[in-house]
Fold:
Amino acid sequence: MTADLEGTIRRFLGGDGEAFDQIVRQWETKVYNLGWRFLGNREDAQDIVQETFLSVFQSLRNLRDPKSFPAWLYRIALNHCRVRWRSRPQDLSLDDPGSLGEGGEEGESRVLLLAQQTRDPLEAMDLIRKSLAGLSEDHRTAIILKEYLGLNLEEVAEVMGCPLSTAKSRVYHGLREVQRNLRRLLSKPGHVRW
Structure:
């Protein structure tokens, strides 16, 4: 975390309302991308942004160390994502296929390599989304944090509240599951391959 963000948090805690707006502007795209990757559609992701920042506004005074803000913010967003995921039918949307978000392009390209047998990029995104939806919550979360949000493994462990070795294992096994799910989807009759 930069000293600038830490200072912005301290200004908010001191009563500066504009400081919270700065925090939202700096982090809303990352929270949106987390929500969209986890839930698979734009409306849910936008709701996650609103719910997350409402929670942040109400609880930021309880944050003990401003340096832990990124992990704390992602944990709040993930909690909102999990509640929404569990409470809705498991349908996937392809309403925002071009949104890669900050830190996501490199991870996205690594995951997309698994779906390169398809001719249509929209179909590839749909296959990846379906493959992610079939993962356990921990594996899906670890992959989204690492591959799409660009967090390093230490940050993934901090956000998920687990040891580094567990974070590594969740990413590794999650990517293997994605690959198996993609192979299964690609082998279905009628699927167009290169």
